[in-house]
Amino acid sequence: MTTTTPEIHRGLAGVVVDTTAISTVIQETNSLTYRGYAVQDLAAHCSFEEVAYLLWYGELPDTQQLHEFRARERALRPLDRTTAELLARLPETCHPMDVLRTAVSFFGSEDPTEDDGSTAANHAKSLALLAKLPVVAAADHRRRQGLAPIQPDPSLGYAENFFHMCFGALPSPEVVRCFEISLILYAEHSFNASTFTARVVTSTLSDLYSAVTAAIGALKGPLHGGANEAVMHMLNEIGDPQWAEKWLDEALADKRRIMGFGHRVYKHGDSRVPIMQEATDLLVTSADDADAARLAALHSALRHAMLSRKGIHPNLDYPAGLAYHLMGFDIPTFTPLFVMSRITGWTAHITEQLEHNSLIRPLGVYNGPGQRAVPAHAR
Ligand SMILES: CC(=O)SCCNC(=O)CCNC(=O)[C@H](O)C(C)(C)COP(=O)(O)OP(=O)(O)OC[C@H]1O[C@@H](n2cnc3c(N)ncnc32)[C@H](O)[C@@H]1OP(=O)(O)O
Ligand SMILES: O=C([O-])CC(=O)C(=O)O
User: Fold this and answer.
1) pLDDT in tens, 308-357
2) Is residue 234 part of a domain?
3) For 296, how many CA atoms within 13 A lie in the half-sphere containing its CB?
4) DSSP string of 205-235?
5) What is the CATH number of the domain that holds 300?
6) What is the total count of domains within the chain?
7) pLDDT at 152
8) Which residues line ligand 2 (CB under 6 A)?
9) Is the pLDDT of residue 155 over 60?
């Protein structure tokens, strides 16, 4: 009898697990579309709220639909006292991704409709998370600086309100626009690790909060969303543009992963990088500040060195990490900013998974010891 060893796809690389109508990377043109619209087009013409609506409902909203959607999002922002007190009790040293993960888990425990997996109920929960997660992230940003939280302002849009809650002031329109572009670009990226995590949890018919809690855990890792923080730590470690090449050569010789570079899907450059890089360059120009110029020169030197040494291009986390620093956020806030955006993509996928669900349960090839008897000392 002959046995054939099944082909193993470690990391599920190249494995197609399902269909999706939410987004796709078009390899031939190296472009990304959400529901058929190129992200470049969306970033140039739409607000983040319009993109959230598009991802959830499949079409861009008309004026009336957008007006109502915005009003509902703004009304859902405030946190109740129990949530605020619970989050304030978490250790000040804990990472804000742990705070967000805990918050989502707690929102689930408080929601009497937690187990209602209907599309309408899940859309309502998704909107509530979209509205509340920035409030949690901003309060935690201020908590790390020993400052009291600032309540959301219902007269402000999603992006502006976040700056208001973090800093008590609004930055220039260029900064708000750059932030909004980052939110649009981060919103959705098909079957990435955190979205796939959300789909795996959903496939067991568990609830939306459990799926999002798990997705936050997956996004936190430095090979995924955590890379935007790691980029800034790396730039701080290198320090000066003139050391970029030497630092890179030593890091590669030590077999280190260079954060913000490489991608499982894009092998010739992440389609989102040019637009994010352009917005980040505008921030540097408008900052008119020697430190911003130093960081931008270092960022560029490392990008060129990485391309010439390894032929590896940056991913979205590379320009986004620098942009978030230039906007004034502390480094631990960077991945939570990604969550505030990706909550839209995750929840769109949760709804889609439920529309044609099949339990996600792959196989593994066993390579442990052969069957054996429990030894005498253990009997
Ligand atoms: C929004 C996002 O989540 S984007 C991704 C953010 N993550 C990062 O920036 C972390 C750094 N990047 C990486 O670790 C990888 O590029 C990943 C995990 C994103 C994708 O990796 P994979 O598709 O699994 O490719 P894999 O890890 O097999 O790498 C292929 C080769 O390129 C090399 N490589 C890929 N990325 C990098 C990198 N950032 N630094 C150094 N070498 C790299 C690998 O060492 C490997 O080389 P080898 O074949 O000589 O061993
Ligand atoms: O698609 C991926 O593997 C990672 C990524 O870029 C994202 O989630 O935005």
Assistant:
1) 999 999 999 999 999 999 999 999 999 999 999 999 999 999 999 999 99
2) yes
3) 19
4) T--HHHHHHHHHHHHHSTTTTTHHHHHHHHH
5) 1.10.230.10
6) 1
7) 98
8) 189, 192, 264-265, 315-316
9) yes
Tell me, in angstroms, the distance from the centre of ligand 2 to residue 278's CA.
20
Q: Please report whether residue 286 resides in a domain.
A: yes
Q: State the Cα–Cα distance between residues 236 and 379, nearest whole angstrom.
A: 57
Q: Whose CA is nearest to atom 3 of ligand 2?
A: 192
Please say whether the beta carbons of 194 and 215 come within 8 A: yes
Supply the pLDDT for residue 5.
Answer: 79
Q: What is the mean pLDDT of the chain?
A: 96
pLDDT band, residue 2 (cuts 50/70/90): low
Is residue 169 assigned to a domain?
A: no
In this structure, which ligand is nearest to the CA of 222? 1
Question: Cα of 153 to ligand 2 centre, how many Å?
Answer: 32
Which of 92-96, 160-164, 214-218 has the lowest average pLDDT? 92-96
Q: Is 314 part of any domain?
A: yes
What CA–CA distance (Å, rounded) separates 17 from 158?
Answer: 34
Mean pLDDT of 305-309: 98
Tokens describing residue 268 = 């010739």
Query: Whose atoms come closest to the Cα of 349: which ligand?
Result: 2
Ligand 1 pocket (Cβ < 6 Å) reads 11, 223-225, 227, 257-264, 310, 312, 315-317
CB burial string 291-311: b at 16+ within 10 A, e below: ebeebbebbbbbbebbeeeee
What is the reported pLDDT for 302? 98
ipTM for this model: 0.98
Indicate which residues carry an active-site annotation: 263, 317
Name the residue range of residue 282's domain: 227-326
Place of tokens 């193993």: 8
Residue 295, token pair as written in the block? 């960081």
